[in-house]
Amino acid sequence: MRFDLADFRLFLCVVEAGSITGGAARANLALASASERLRNMESDAGVQLLVRGARGVTTTEAGEALAHHARLMLRQQAALMSELQGFADGEKGTLHLYANTAALTEFLPGRLARWLAGRPHLNVELKERTSADIVRTIAAGLAEAGIVSDAAEVPGLSFQPIAEDHLVLLLPPEHGFASAGAACFADLLNEPFVGLAPGNALQDHIEDHARSAGRSLSVRIRMKTFDGVCEMVSHGIGVAVMPKGIASRYRRRHAYRTLPLQDRWALRQLCLCHGDWQALCAPMKSLLLHLGAKPNAP
Q1: What residue stretches are annotated with the HTH lysR-type domain (predicted)?
Q2: Domains, the chain, ordered by start
Q3: What is the CA radius of gyration of the chain?
């Protein structure tokens, strides 16, 4: 059988109208065209679907079965079209957003929660990477957008600052540097460090800068959370580097000193990073606008 959705619509129109003439009118078809299509349906099915009489038409048992399944299929089609329209409007689907550690920890939670709350059928998959990795991924066309530090700019991509993300040094209260006004990262490379777990984007970033200075960090212990790092530093286990906002938050429960880092790479800003704005999907544009994107900015 070669029935299509138009056949099903016509058949239901005829059944509901009780006549081929009325059904043809409901389906916006000429009577001759509707009659021929119905005869072709019966021929393809190999069974009579309608009983034609002077007062109109009634369905045979086979016609009743066809009408039942036609209604189901048309409802499924309507549900499918509605769901697809949801994807087209940006109300459904999954967005993949890349972000560095500071953005994931401090910047995104509150802002992303407000945006997602109004879109119950939309999901966001957050992927933590270093800023350099995120920029390479976007430049290669493997991701639409991310949140990175301003030290990772690449020609051809858009970078728009949205928040400060300065890194600071955490010191035990009695550490010799504690009374200094600021420090350079290179001056600390002889110190024992408290680090984050392997694979953490911020920790990888810090260790990359140590290697650039020709050294490697002496990490006494690695913790899975910033809270754990702060606990270790407050007990004199070592020093650590983390975003200023996070360090300020945990000072309420741990005793340590913070010291600004003078290195240019530590004086960071969080930036939205993406390629051609017009090439972004509708929900990604909506999210980036919510986070502070200005698509017409130079």
Answers
A1: 3-60
A2: 5-83 (1.10.10.10), 94-297 (3.40.190.290)
A3: 32
Assess contact for 149 and 269: CB atoms under 8 A. Answer: yes
Q: Give the C-alpha distances (Å, rounded to integers) separating 240 from 142, 180, 227, 261, 282.
A: 33, 16, 12, 11, 40
* Residue 49 contacts residue 66 (beta carbons within 8 Å): yes
pLDDT in tens, 24-38: 898 888 999 888 989
Query: Residue 197 carries which DSSP code?
Result: P
Structure confidence at residue 193 (pLDDT):
96
For residue 10, give the nearest of 27, 28, 25 by alpha carbon: 27
Task: Give CA–CA dist 266/260, Å, rounded.
Answer: 9
Are the beta carbons of 238 and 191 closer than 8 angstroms? yes
| Residue 137 and residue 144 in contact, taking contact as beta carbons nearer than 8 Å | no
pLDDT value for 182: 85
C-alpha to C-alpha distance for 123 and 283, rounded to whole angstroms:
10
pLDDT (tens digit, 9 = 90+) per residue, 116-155? 998 888 899 999 988 888 999 999 888 999 999 887 667 8
Q: Has residue 298 got a pLDDT over 60?
A: no
Q: How far is CA 294 from CA 5, 102, 161, 216, 291, in A?
A: 45, 22, 10, 40, 10
Edge-to-edge strand ranges of the sheet holding 240-243: 240-243, 167-171, 257-260
Question: What residue ranges in 109-244 does DSSP mark as E strands?
Answer: 122-128, 145-149, 158-164, 167-171, 192-196, 218-223, 240-243
For tokens 């001759």, what's the residue? 32
